[in-house]
Amino acid sequence: MSLLDRLERTRFGKFGIPNLMRYVIGVNIVGILISLVNPTFYYSYLSLDIASILHGQVWRIFTFVLSPSGQFGGTGMVSLLWFAIWIFVYYSIGTNLERMWGTFRFNLFYFGGLLLVVIMTFIFYLFLQLGLVPNAATAYMDYMLSANIMDDLNQTMFLAFAFAFPDAQFLVYFIIPVKAKWLSIVYLLMDGYMFVRYLMSGYYYSAAVILVLLLNFFIFYFMGRGSLTPKQAYHQKKRKMEYKKKTAPTQGSVPRHHCVICGRTDVDSPQLEFRYCSKCEGNYEYCSEHLFTHEHVHH
Length: 299
Fold this sequence. Notes:
The protein has two domains: 3-245, no CATH class; 250-299, no CATH class. Helix content is 60%, strand content 5%. The protein has twelve helices and four strands. It has helices at residues 3-9, 20-37, 41-46, 50-54, 60-63, 77-101, 103-129, 136-145, 149-164, 180-201, 204-223, 230-247; strands at 169-172, 176-179, 274-276, 285-287. The strands form two sheets. It has a two-stranded antiparallel ribbon.
């Protein structure tokens, strides 16, 4: 049994936000609306500015998720269409991951990434204050203006999806079918390129965000070692749901017969027969087990 399995079997396994991607998409849309109304509002009052947090603006620990998506390039039709496609793709990926892993594990993956970013940001700010970060002016500017954390986290969801469903196909430019495993390789190569480029440019915070979110992904999969692979777990869960659907009584069925002694009905006990007793005064119905053993009712 893996560490994730053991954790899920504890009381913590009951916690989690169902349909988390609905709220994630909602947060992305709110972030876009805020940036359209006031482009500087996020950086002034909502971003993960540790100095402001230490001076009492603790809400920033939570509101930094309202970062305006880098996928939104303006109010033109092309930008709106691209943003809508981006939302649809990541909503589909996140929803499929939640179905495969379950609500608890998907929440752990997503919020675990956010928690690691917050911890890393506090450490980075401490290093800045201690003068341990070279090219401090550029590094500080990068830290203050970085707003693509949510985009980077959403992209690691694609990496998780590709590991689970490597043969799933995506239509690049709506024309070229490419399997998820090849796109994941491209994604990792691009992340590696951007990581090196950020380091060479002095954008250490942006490089650290990439590293931490990839670390979150690999930690999550390392914690899942010893259990079924994501694909196996998904199919096992699907088989269990199909079995329960076949064996469970039809939802919404209204019982036509009801035993006044044991309470069983023709819905939950279809193998029983039900009859009204002619010797009882009133309409009293009994199952076949109590039809001849009950005490007759007389008013």
